[in-house]
Structures are given as structure tokens and as C-alpha cells.
Specification:
The structure is a single chain. The chain has 2 helices and no strands. By secondary structure, it is mainly α.
Length: 68
């Protein structure tokens, strides 16, 4: 029984690469960068989200159980 032979891969083309990015591939990272930069420059505009009261009570209970 003979094993199948594999053909060697073709060499890569040496011509110029013709790749184009869609408009959003540059726009979205730029928008994210500008948004984060504005938050860093003006942190008074950023507000913490209110926590659920149940989560705070749960964390306090876990802390009490751990410290026992």
C-alpha cells in the first residue's frame, strides 16, 4: 500500500498587495481613542454607576463570614 504524495505549495505572488480597509476599520478605533482621551482630560463628567443595594449587602455578609 503506497502513501499519497503531497504537492508542494505554490510560491507567493511577488506583486504589490492590493488590500483596502473598510471605513469603519479606522473610524471605530479612532472614536474609541478620542472618547477615552476626553474622559481622561475631564474626569468630572464621568460618573460611577449606582450599585444594587442587594450586592452591597451580599458583599458585607461574605466579609462577615470570612472574618469569623
Amino acid at each position: 500500500m503506497s502513501a499519497p504524495t503531497h504537492t508542494p505549495p505554490r510560491p507567493a505572488a511577488t506583486g504589490p498587495a492590493d488590500t483596502r480597509l473598510p471605513w469603519w476599520a479606522l473610524a471605530l478605533p479612532t472614536l474609541a481613542f478620542v472618547t477615552l482621551l476626553l474622559l481622561i482630560l475631564n474626569p468630572s463628567e464621568a460618573q460611577a454607576a449606582p450599585a444594587e443595594p442587594g450586592i452591597g449587602l451580599l458583599l458585607e455578609r461574605v466579609q462577615q463570614l470570612v472574618t469569623r
